[in-house]
Structure formats: structure tokens, C-alpha cells
Amino acid sequence: MTRHETPERRPWGSLEADVLAVLRAAPGPLTPAQVLECLGRGAAYNTIQTILTRLLDKGLTQRGPSPHGGRGHVYWPTHGTPTVIAQQMRALLNGPGDRRAVLREFTAELDPADAAVLRGLLAQVGDDPA
Q1: DSSP code, position 8
Q2: pTM of the complete model
Q3: Considering the domain boundaries, does residue 2 fall inside one?
Q4: Which terminus in the chain has less CB density within 10 A, N or C?
Q5: How many domains does the chain have?
Q6: Residues 38 and 91 in one domain
Q7: Is 102 found in the same domain as 55?
Q8: Range of the domain at 109
Q9: 67 close to 74: Cβ distance less than 8 angstroms
Q10: Which residues contact 16 (CB under 8 A, 6 or more apart)?
Q11: Per-residue pLDDT of the chain in tens (130 residues, 90 and over written 9)
């Protein structure tokens, strides 16, 4: 890569999603180094630590002391997959931008079966927009 080229950036939130997937697939809590090893790509150790801390702040992971002692920590997911994905969707929806436009774009790409499920779930909620 030359001085003027920029590295290809990964999609927003994809590293968080990948880290959560690693934690969910693990048989137990993992250290940041273990998460990095499982990812098998060029992320920096400090980046993984930052992602794990952000996931902790969002309530998506829990943290405990490392069984090896010292100042290290281990992390594990707080919830199962549907809850985590729903929280991520809400976070994106509550982010900057036009909420209505985001919902319109999301629903425009739904296949008919998913649209039917969504209509049924919305009917259960009722007409209250709150």
C-alpha cells in the first residue's frame, strides 16, 4: 500500500459482531488474547480490548477476573443470540439519522415470510407507537 492509499475499512459494527460471535461459540469465558486468536485476522490486541470494553458498557458481555491471576480479565456474552442481535438493531435504529428512513429501507428488503412474521408481531404489540 502506498502512502496515499487508505486501507479498506470493515463495515461499521462488524468487528463487534465478530467478537460477540467468538464469545458465543466459545465453551467458556475468553481473554482478549484468546478472542484475537479466534478471530484469526489482523486486528490489534488493544482494538480487541476496546471492543470488549464497549460491549461490556453496552451490557452485551460480562467480565470477570482471569483464572490465571494478575490484572487480566475474561469475557463472556450476557445474552443469547436473538437478544444480542435485537439490542444491536435497537442501537443502530437509535443512532444518528432519519429513523423512519432506516425503518423504510429495512422493511423494503424483507422477504415475504419475514414480513409476515413482523406484521404478526406488530399486531401483538397493538397500535401504541410508544
Answers
A1: P
A2: 0.58
A3: no
A4: C
A5: 2
A6: no
A7: no
A8: 81-125
A9: yes
A10: 51, 54, 55, 88
A11: 444 444 555 555 789 989 999 999 999 999 999 999 999 877 899 999 999 999 999 888 999 998 887 888 999 998 766 776 787 788 888 888 888 998 999 899 999 999 999 999 999 987 555 5
